[in-house]
What we know:
By secondary structure, the protein is α/β, with parallel strands linked by helices.
Amino acid sequence: MADVLILVGSDSDKPRIEPAFEVLSKAGVSYEFHVSSAHRQPDLTADLVKNARTKGFRVVIAGAGLSAALPGFAASLTDLPVIGVPFAVGALNGLDALLATAQVPSGVPVACVGIDNAKNAAHLAVRIVKA
């Protein structure tokens, strides 16, 4: 059973989230990584997130670029803390993803770290798990 569920929307996002793997491993916090898109695979993504608590996860890290729907989508389906990592892709170099991640509707909380800052997402996840 892992402590942190890590999600990204496409295989091309994996290098951007990989710095989190090292931080979590060094801290002794277990994680499970999945590529699952809120747009292309909404049912699979919903299943992963809805069942996260029963599978023993304590935190969700969701990384996304462009419209960055994944963090908010995840937060709408779980009461676990969700940490969003906006990725620097597209014409706006991550600004659109940052704004989308930071401005989800009231009642759907997402903690937002800086653009491409998977390390800080992992550090925050470690603090939550070890609190």
